[in-house]
Amino acid sequence: MKKRFLLALLACLCLLLAACSPSSVPEEEVSLPVDSEETVEETPSVEDSGETVFFYVADEAVTFVEFSFHYNEAVDSFLQSDAYLESGLDPDRSLASQQYPGLEMSWEDVFIQQVQDQLYFYLALSQEATEQGYERGERENNYIQEIFAQKRDYAEEMEMTLEELLVQLYGLEMTPEILEKHLERYVLGMGYEDHLRETTVYTDDELAAYYEEHEYAVKVPDGYTVTVRHIQMVNKQSALDVLEKFESGDKSEQSFIDLVVKYSEDTESLEDGGMYADILPQNNVDEYGAFELWAFDAARQPGEYTLLEDETGSDIVYFVEKNESFWKVWSRNTMLDEMLTDIRDQYDFIPVEE
């Protein structure tokens, strides 16, 4: 199931890259390492100065070592995802030497653009958050602590100090203090985005008016979205064993959540008890996979469950509920996206001239 969401995210990225993007960085000036647990590579000398600025967001600088951190995280996350298995990317070859499917760009160029756009977005929101008096909360601070805990564990595994590891991965001038200061800015923007998405309310009339105005530009089928929980497992027999445990109990949603926490291999949804909410199906019914055929069956009822299989493994899926109409979800999400983009655009993206 996670694969579908990652592939959709990557497809959206490709459309954005093809349409428009901030000024790109010349390939010969950027050669960033992949942060993998198998190897620790020396960061190229062009990034070795923490004072070397990659670009500005308004008056805030992003240095090469800060950019290198996010680049490594993006590549490493992709290589550990199900989407990587179908990407055709060879991690043993230079990313700069491999063309991204469907684009006249290398994989390195795509990751550079993705990270650049991501940093522009969140650092702009960070500045807006400061302007509006929004402050970091427990969730954002926990994120920073988790990053440092992961790096300390990795450093211990590599028999290095944290300071040595950060230099090896991100550049000679990277220190725990520099990384922490940068993350404080970055997660402030992340938290502010969550805050706006959670607190901005649109009336049904506003949603209907927006959809009516834009209906010609989108294909949103009639119907509803669904919310499910799932337990992802690579091994089918292990999935069958977990399913048997569920069926031997009270078959409640809480019992399912307990099994998610204990057994699911989808780490991204563990904190939410394996939940994926407001799922939209493919526009074309003929393209429905096993999940869509089951989840969007008109007769599907809350509390029903099934075991689904694909080439990546097995999913035990628990149906939680039917939600709002497609058009409402689409309108709300698109209006929120436009609002956040308008905020970002108030802060200039300024590439550093050669």
Written account of the structure:
With 354 residues, the protein is an alpha+beta fold. The protein folds into two domains: 28-199, no CATH class; 223-329, Chitinase A, domain 3 (Roll). Helix content is 50%, strand content 13%. It has twelve helices and seven strands. The strands form two sheets. Strands 4-3-6-5 form a four-stranded antiparallel sheet. Strand 1 and strand 2 form a beta hairpin. Helix 2 (64-79) packs across helix 4 (107-131), helix 4 (107-131) packs across helix 7 (176-199) and helix 5 (138-157) packs across helix 6 (162-170). The longest helix has 25 residues, at 107-131. Residues 1-50 have low confidence and may be disordered.
Key traits:
354 residues; alpha+beta; Chitinase A, domain 3; 2 domains; 4-stranded antiparallel sheet; 3-stranded antiparallel sheet; 7 strands; globular; disordered N terminus
